[in-house]
Amino acid sequence: MPIPTEDARFLPADQLTSLVAGLMAIGYRCIGPAVEQGAIVMRPLDTPALPRGLQAEQQPGSYRVGRDPHDRYFAWANGPQAIKPLTFAPQEAMWRVERNAAGTLQFAAVLPPAERLAVIGVRACDLAALALQDAHFLREGRRDTHYARRREQLFLVAVQCAVPAATCFCASTGDGPTPTSGFDLALAELADGFVATAGSDAGRAVLATLGLAPATSQQCEAARQQGVAAASAQTRRMPGGLRETLMSRLEHPRWDDVAARCLACGNCTAVCPTCFCHAEADAPALDGRSSEHARNWDSCFGESHGHLHGTNVRPDIRTRYRQWLTHKLATWHDQFGRSGCVGCGRCIAWCPVGIDLTEEVAALTGGSDQRAPESGKGAA
Which of 149, 159, 190, 262 is the most exposed place for a label (fewest CB within 10 A)? Predict the structure, then answer.
């Protein structure tokens, strides 16, 4: 899908710092890319300056940070996580109970701080994942207060993913590489700056403060062509229409094959931007006068996750991997009207044994090589 030309502005590369500084000036704590423990992660920014020249090589079971020869700001596809930890916290207290002097128990909700966050460098796949998280946590009648409180404070600066990783396949799921919705501002990085598009009233207000010239038709076309090229460069793909096929192959021998390789470590679910499994636990104080009830990220690959009424409904790795893949790619359609996979490829890169989701799907469905590119497939 092309970059919108109406109201698009051109942000020179040397003014990106002004955008971040402007967000800080109006009260946002800005989150942006940083290198930490050998990976590009999203962390709070101490200054408005963003790092340049970062790149990341990703392969099954491999992630390496390198240098971009063109010294761009966003020449990397993604890191292990982006938006999810900022809305669905990895660990948080939900409520607290205390015993007062009269011996009566008093319960009180523990709410997260309402902090305004601006996230710089959000990818299209992560916007699609956020929409799925919204569908789960903001359901009518079952609105999650903790998630909603954080979600309402987000300002999202998305960027076009012009340099996809070898593990990316968002074009085939229809979720990238060009952001089309769900952002406040979207940037497409060209050689000398950015085509900037507002996607909300808040985004338009911020863009107006920068006094930018309109983007030319040539700049908008260059951004569009860049998205088309990035989609065509993706060599992995995920086919559609998997629900009935996967659910009819629950006894396929490939489940035993992948179980022999899978470590059930849960890395894939930890880095997946749409997974939302969690466990809850109580932490009583040693003096017995108070207790805190917490929610923690969990994984369907953990043994305890399958415990139900004194038995384990998924007692081995075979059934756990099958649960994860069929739920993500098949039965999510029943819940959310689409697959739970947005094509980010994180589960491939961060699997310690290099299990490739697209290869497993190809083996299970009997389809052709899922790495063959499809001309014009997916959103540009």
Answer: 149
Q: Measured between alpha carbons, how far is 349 from 239 in angstroms, rounded to an integer?
A: 20
pLDDT in tens, 21-48: 999 999 999 999 999 999 999 999 999 9
Q: Is 317 left (phi over 0), alpha (psi -120 to 50) or beta?
A: alpha
Other beta carbons within 10 Å of 111: 13
d(CA 110, CA 103): 21
- The model's pTM is 0.91
Helix 317-326 to helix 254-261 angle (10° resolution) is 110
